[in-house]
Amino acid sequence: MTGTDHRPERILIADDEPLFLRTTGELLRREGYRCVCVSDAASAMEQLRQHSFDLVLSDLNMPGNFKLELLHDHSKHRSRIPLIVVTGVPTLPSAIESIRLGIADYLLKPVRVEDLLASVRRALDLRRKARPRRCASRDEPDRFGDLIGASRPMQELYAILERISGSDANVLIRGESGTGKEIVARTIHENSRRAEGPFQVIDCTAVPDSLFESVLFGHVKGAFTGASQDHDGLLARCDGGTAFLDELGELPLPMQGKLLRAVQEQTFLPVGGHTPRRINTRFICATHRDLEAEVEAGRFRQDLYYRLSVIPIQLPPLRERREDIMLLAEHLLRELAPPGAAGLAFSPQVKQRLEAYDWPGNVRELRNFVEYAVALNTTDSIDLEDLPASLREGTASSVVSCRAGDVVTDVLPEPLVGATRTEVLATAESRYLELLMTSHRGNVSEAARQAGLSRQGLHKLLKRYGIDPDAFRV
Ligand SMILES: Nc1ncnc2c1ncn2[C@@H]1O[C@H](COP(=O)(O)OP(=O)(O)OP(=O)(O)O)[C@@H](O)[C@H]1O
């Protein structure tokens, strides 16, 4: 059985019973599906974050899922991928909660082979019908795969994505935080001939410099104290697929030369190894930094920059494509509203406020806002009182205004007069983060919510500026 784009459909099976896992995996593979089997909820969530799947088959009682964590995570972030529950311990509360979270089916163990296959086929069939076609921009002007937006910059982006779908060239995506760099990278992967291969996210800010080489290239047994066996790195996992290097600008300089070899020659040496490993990988990278300035400043290798930016893509901030705000907000509302709240809508005053707001955290901030409003709302309309204070008061829109001809020293602190644009912006961002941390007393979750960033995204920024949240706790 294959999907509409002639690639085998991918099924994630999560169950802590080894026998069920093995036999179900074998059964579905025989039917032509590609299966990945994991035995706990954390591994399932990691797989879903890193790879594309068409369906999830999940047990309920398995490690890490006793409060249905996998189902909650799934309903929040990937509700368009159908999830079938297969449980040996059915309870009424778990069944009600599973259905509330929008599962596709609820099967009881021992499940008959024909029932399982019928349920899998039904769920995949529905997904195929609901799924936007490949390169959908011509027929559906306001979306391309999972990307939403009808503005001119988005139309231009869709045209580029369509044109490059036959290409295997490396891509460099730039844009502010939350503009959609990762979702664009996934879209490129899913529309490429590598679609059935892995899509591996490598977050350059998440790995300490000293571990980078081993995390990226792996190591051989005995390479260092504690290396008791050979270990594959993240690059080995991208073979046949796409490596997505997020925040490329943070890659330590010594690693840049090693990455260049992997990009150029498609080979690398695991730490302590002598035999080069060959890969077949496309590189898509993202950065919010001005990499050309980094090259000029000697912080980023020019040869690597040219290798990776064969196709450059610039993502516009949301404030520069305001006509997409309500389109995205309505889409997110449909995605995030609980089942049974299909009529939930924004009031006219809220729409006005959303369209006027500057969205410094871009689409991620908008998504966080919709989640917040959906969680607080008890009626069928999202009204002004459901908005967080920053949006109600429109604080982020009130920017310092500076008329043409004003002397720039009026708005710049003395030490920054004559500084470059990058230095001024970095100073402002670092100051903003300090104020944010002060007002939230070092609570990263709360601060991230206000800033419209993910916790991970805020951690990345804090790390970049050497700001320790613990120092703000009182
Ligand atoms: N055009 C879009 N259509 C639909 N959803 C979008 C769009 N752009 C972004 N999103 C959603 O906004 C959120 C943030 O997007 P994403 O993580 O891709 O941004 P990013 O630029 O990689 O952020 P960061 O730089 O902080 O890592 C995700 O939930 C993503 O699905």
UniProtKB/TrEMBL annotation:
<protein>
    <submittedName>
        <fullName>Transcriptional regulatory protein ZraR</fullName>
    </submittedName>
</protein>
<keyword id="KW-0804">Transcription</keyword>
<dbReference type="InterPro" id="IPR025662">
    <property type="entry name" value="Sigma_54_int_dom_ATP-bd_1"/>
</dbReference>
<keyword id="KW-0805">Transcription regulation</keyword>
<dbReference type="GO" id="GO:0000160">
    <property type="term" value="P:phosphorelay signal transduction system"/>
</dbReference>
<keyword id="KW-0547">Nucleotide-binding</keyword>
<dbReference type="InterPro" id="IPR027417">
    <property type="entry name" value="P-loop_NTPase"/>
</dbReference>
<feature type="domain" description="Response regulatory">
    <location>
        <begin position="10"/>
        <end position="124"/>
    </location>
</feature>
<feature type="domain" description="Sigma-54 factor interaction">
    <location>
        <begin position="147"/>
        <end position="375"/>
    </location>
</feature>
<dbReference type="Pfam" id="PF25601">
    <property type="entry name" value="AAA_lid_14"/>
</dbReference>
<dbReference type="GO" id="GO:0043565">
    <property type="term" value="F:sequence-specific DNA binding"/>
</dbReference>
<keyword id="KW-0067">ATP-binding</keyword>
<dbReference type="InterPro" id="IPR009057">
    <property type="entry name" value="Homeodomain-like_sf"/>
</dbReference>
<dbReference type="Pfam" id="PF00072">
    <property type="entry name" value="Response_reg"/>
</dbReference>
<dbReference type="InterPro" id="IPR001789">
    <property type="entry name" value="Sig_transdc_resp-reg_receiver"/>
</dbReference>
<feature type="modified residue" description="4-aspartylphosphate">
    <location>
        <position position="59"/>
    </location>
</feature>
<dbReference type="Pfam" id="PF00158">
    <property type="entry name" value="Sigma54_activat"/>
</dbReference>
<dbReference type="GO" id="GO:0006355">
    <property type="term" value="P:regulation of DNA-templated transcription"/>
</dbReference>
<dbReference type="InterPro" id="IPR003593">
    <property type="entry name" value="AAA+_ATPase"/>
</dbReference>
<dbReference type="Pfam" id="PF02954">
    <property type="entry name" value="HTH_8"/>
</dbReference>
<dbReference type="InterPro" id="IPR002197">
    <property type="entry name" value="HTH_Fis"/>
</dbReference>
<keyword id="KW-0597">Phosphoprotein</keyword>
<dbReference type="InterPro" id="IPR011006">
    <property type="entry name" value="CheY-like_superfamily"/>
</dbReference>
<dbReference type="InterPro" id="IPR058031">
    <property type="entry name" value="AAA_lid_NorR"/>
</dbReference>
<dbReference type="InterPro" id="IPR025944">
    <property type="entry name" value="Sigma_54_int_dom_CS"/>
</dbReference>
<dbReference type="GO" id="GO:0005524">
    <property type="term" value="F:ATP binding"/>
</dbReference>
<dbReference type="InterPro" id="IPR002078">
    <property type="entry name" value="Sigma_54_int"/>
</dbReference>
